[in-house]
From TrEMBL, chains A, B:
Gene: hypE
Pfam family, one: AIRS
Highest taxon of the lineage: Bacteria
Organism from which the protein derives: Streptomyces xinghaiensis
Alphabetical GO biological process terms: protein maturation
Family membership: Belongs to the HypE family.
The protein's name: Hydrogenase expression/formation protein HypE
Domain PurM-like C-terminal: 173-323
Domain PurM-like N-terminal: 50-160
Amino acid sequence: MSSCPNPHEEHERVLLGHGAGGRLTAELLESLLLPAVGGFPAGPPEGPLEDAAPLPGRPELVMSTDGFVVHPLFFPGGDIGSLAVHGTVNDLAVMGARPLALSVALVIEEGLPLSELRSVAGSLGKAAREAEVPVVTGDTKVVGRGAADKIFITTTGIGTRIPGLAPSAARARPGDAVLLSGPIGLHGTAVLSTREGLGFEADIVSDSRPLHRLVEALAPVGARLHTLRDPTRGGLAATLNEIARDSGVAVEIDESALPVPGPVASACDLLGLDPLHVANEGCMVAFVAPSAAEAALAAMRSRAEGTGAVRIGEATAGPAGRVLMRTLVGARRVVDMPIGEQLPRIC
Amino acid sequence: MSSCPNPHEEHERVLLGHGAGGRLTAELLESLLLPAVGGFPAGPPEGPLEDAAPLPGRPELVMSTDGFVVHPLFFPGGDIGSLAVHGTVNDLAVMGARPLALSVALVIEEGLPLSELRSVAGSLGKAAREAEVPVVTGDTKVVGRGAADKIFITTTGIGTRIPGLAPSAARARPGDAVLLSGPIGLHGTAVLSTREGLGFEADIVSDSRPLHRLVEALAPVGARLHTLRDPTRGGLAATLNEIARDSGVAVEIDESALPVPGPVASACDLLGLDPLHVANEGCMVAFVAPSAAEAALAAMRSRAEGTGAVRIGEATAGPAGRVLMRTLVGARRVVDMPIGEQLPRIC
C-alpha cells in the first residue's frame, strides 16, 4: 500500500532470523512469547523462557531445553544426535550444574531411512554415556513427508548445581578477566561447509562436546567464578553482548588474543562471515574475578577440552552493555549483537 | 527383487504408523531406539524412553516429555498450545505426580503469521496458569518454509509425587476394578473432523484438559490405587493392552458400560474408526483394588473432570496380556493393540 517499509508489516510473519539467537530472537521473546506465556506468579527470578532455570522450590536443580534442527544431520565432528546431548548438557554446565537426567523427543519425517535413525539414535546414546547422563524418558512422533525435514530432536536436561558455584549472566563485575576455553567458529563453519559442499570439511571439525567436566574443574574457583556461557547461536558476539547487558558492564576483548583457527578464518573470509557471529558447541566463556584469573586458566588447561584456554579481555565499568574489540591495527570497534540469521539451522 | 513382500524391506523407512502409539511404535522403540540410546548402567528401572520416569537418586521427582505436532493447530476445545500443556501435565499426573515445572521448545516454520504464534503461545500460557505450573525455560528454533508444518511444540515436565500414591502400569492385579473418568473418542474425532471438514465440529469438542487435580482427589485411595493411564495415542485399546502386558493380567470390559458420546459414535461409523482406538486428552483409566472401587469412583465424580466416571470392567488372572470386551449382543471379542496409524498427527 505504501512505498515506505513498515516495520510492523515486515514482522507480521516469523522470519528465519527469529530463530538465530540474535536481536530478532530477543525481540520475539520479549515482545511476544514472554508476555503470552509468562505471568505465572511463582515464576523463577529469571522469568520464563530463559535457556536454563532453577526448579521452583528446589534451587539446587536446574532445567534446560533445546530443540535441534541442524541441517545436514551429519557433519564432521558429530551429528544431530550427539549435538542434542552436548547442547543441553552444556546449557546445564554453564549454570554450574552436573547433568542428572535427559529426556529426548523426536519428530521424524515419514520416509526417513531407518539406518539414518539408527545412526542418530546410536550417536545420541553414545554421547549420553560419555557424558555419564542417563536418558530417562522420551517420545517419538512421525509426520508426513514434507511436514518436517528428516528429524528434529528436543532434549531437556535436569542438572544438580555444583556446591559453591553460582555463575550467572548477571554476575559479571568490572575488572573481571574474560576467559575463553578454546578456538571459536569451528561448529558453524563445519556445518555450513558440509551443507554447501564448500570443501573445508577436511580441515574444519565441529567442536561439539560436553563441557560439564570443564566446569567441575573450575569448582575450586568458587564464588569468584562470576559468569559462564557457551557461545552457541549468535556466536561469541551474542554471548558477550548478553552478559554485558545482563550484568550492566562493558566488555573489551583483544582481537590478537582470539583463537580463530586458520581454516575458520579462510571459510569466514570466503563467505563474508564474522567468526565472532559463528556458532560454537564446545567452548565456553568465563568471567572471573581478577584474583582468580590465573587459577581458572590453569584449571581449564588441565582438561583436554580446555587446553586452548586463553584470556581474551576484561569487563569494565561501562557504558553498560557495550562490547568493544581492540583490533590488530590498534583501533577499537563495537562488537554488535547479530541481528538475524547468519547461519540458519546450524544447531 | 521378489514378488513376496519382505517385512524387513517394508520397514526400511520410518512410516507414519511408527508414531501412532500402537504396535509399530512399540517395535521401533524395542528394536531400534532403546538398544541404540540405552545401555547406561544407572538407568531407571523402567528403562529409558518410557513416557515418564523418576529422576536418578530422586524418586520423588518424575520427568516426562512429549512432542506435539497436531494438525490443524486449532480445533474445537483447544489448540496445540493448550494441548502441549495438558499432555505433559497428564503424563506426570498418571505417575501420581503434581506438576512442578514445564519447559517449552518451539520449532517454527518460517512464514508462520505472528498472530497465530501469539495465539498459540497465549493459549499455552493460559493452560499453564490454569494448571498452576510455571513455564520456567524454553527454546525457539525457526526452519525454512517447507522444512516444518507451521509449529511443533515439545513440552517437558517435572512433577512431585503425591505421598502415598505409587501407580504403575505394572501394578494392576487380578480382581482390580477398571474405572474410566469420562467419555472416550472426543479429542481424536474433534481434530479429524476439523482437519477434514466433516461437519462434526459443532457437536464434538476435544476433551483436552489437565487431570492432576483428579489424581489428587484419588490420594485417599492410597496404595489400593494400582494403575493410572491417560489413553491418548492408540486410544483406550492401546492403554488397556499396555497395562495387561506390563502387569501380566487379562482385562475384561463391558461394551455397555463404555461412555461413547453419540456424535463420536456417528463420526466413527462414518469414518470406519473404532472409538477404542481414538485418542483422548482428558480422560483417565484407573485400576483399583475391589475394596476401593466405590471410594475411587466417588472421588472422581466429586470433580468436574470426573463427573462421568464409570466402572467399565475388571482385571482377571489371565491369559496375561489379553484384553476382551463383552459386546452388547453378549459375545466376547478381543480388543487388539492398534497396529499403526489410524489418525496421524492427532496430538
